[in-house]
Design brief:
The protein is of the alpha/beta class. It folds into two domains: about 5-260, Spore Coat Polysaccharide Biosynthesis Protein SpsA, Chain A, CATH 3.90.550; about 260-290, no CATH class. About 35% of the residues lie in helices and about 25% in strands. It has eleven helices and 13 strands. α3 runs antiparallel to α4. Bound molecules: uridine 5'-triphosphate (UTP). The site of uridine 5'-triphosphate has 21 residues, from α5.
């Protein structure tokens, strides 16, 4: 059985929902408390056993690569100042995992972003992590998908129920049960990206974690622009589904779409409340608010 070792992190989107913050700063670098969102995602990849990451970046996204690279000047300064704790934090980020990047010259869509990583992933199955979805659970979301992959050696996407009012913001799946001890596992029959509510096949939405078989590249080559005029990964997966099974897994955990302002704020508050060094004072402050 082929292990899933390589991770693709598409991060070339324009982040228009977060303007003006994202005019000169990649949205993946916006911090939740004191860590850029993309670091939470990379940590999930490390915890799930991945060995190699490729970021798909675009114009103005150099900070992402810099963040995971060594910064000798900063390290030297921290050493001089005797700030060993900070030095360790900064160095650990650079040593976490091997990273490389590829440039998506035009934001032609998530499907296109994945398509251009073919030379990196080759003919191996690979993981895709979207940089603006953070999932919190004691078993990382991607690790949950890997358990399904280990059993079926097939593509699997993470899904969750979303309110019907918001279905048209998501890729949605129509599913059928699978004979399995795990009721969270489903087989996808159909999928559609950002449909009007009345055309949604369900309220089960694809979120930003996927394990994909290499056949997806063939399918993506045949995919034409869809919703929003972009080459959609969902449409590519639909093509793949005609050739081989694709599974959906209703993962366990809390997901924050931090590309969305309200969810970004919620994530910030909840993450701060989990932090030992902040929780007490922050909770006192929240309690003092006359809401
Ligand atoms: P989103 O639609 O959430 O990202 O794409 P966006 O376009 O940056 O955000 P808004 O809607 O304008 O605020 C989902 C993921 O796909 C990546 C994004 O970086 C994000 O991680 N993406 C999207 C690409 O890498 N390339 C693209 O052409 C489009």
């Amino acid at each position: 059985m082929e292990r899933v070792r390589k991770a693709v992190i598409p991060a070339a989107g324009m982040g228009t929902r977060f303007l003006p913050a994202t005019k000169a700063i990649p949205k993946e670098m916006l911090p939740i408390v004191d860590k850029p969102t993309i670091q939470y995602v990379v940590e999930e990849a490390v915890q799930s056993g991945f060995e190699d990451i490729i970021f798909v970046t675009g114009q103005g996204k150099n900070e992402i690569e810099d963040h995971f690279d060594y910064d000798y000047r900063l390290e030297h300064r921290l050493k001089e100042q005797g700030k060993e704790d900070l030095l360790r934090i900064v160095r650990n980020i650079s040593e976490m995992i091997a990273v490389s990047s590829i440039r998506q010259k035009k934001p032609l869509g998530l499907g296109h972003a994945v398509q251009i990583t073919e030379a990196f992933t080759g003919d191996e199955p690979f993981g895709v992590f979207l940089g603006d979805d953070i999932v919190v659970h004691k078993v990382p979301c991607m690790k949950q998908l890997l358990t399904v992959y280990d059993r079926y050696q097939a593509s699997v996407v993470a899904v969750e129920e979303v309110p019907w009012e918001s279905v048209s913001r998501f890729g949605l799946v129509a599913v059928e049960p699978v004979e399995s001890k795990d009721p969270r596992l489903l087989r996808i029959r159909d999928m559609v990206e950002k449909p009007p509510r009345e055309e949604a096949p369900s309220n089960l939405a694809i979120i930003g974690r996927y394990i994909l078989m290499p056949g997806v590249f063939q399918a993506l080559k045949k995919t034409t622009p869809g919703a929003g005029g972009e080459i959609q990964l969902t449409d590519g997966l639909r093509g793949l589904m005609e050739l081989e099974p694709v599974y959906a897994y209703r993962f366990e955990g809390t997901r924050y779409d931090v590309g969305n302002k309200l969810e970004y704020l919620i994530a910030t508050v909840e993450f701060a409340l989990r932090r030992e060094d902040l929780q007490e004072e922050f909770r006192d402050y929240l309690r003092s608010l006359k809401l």
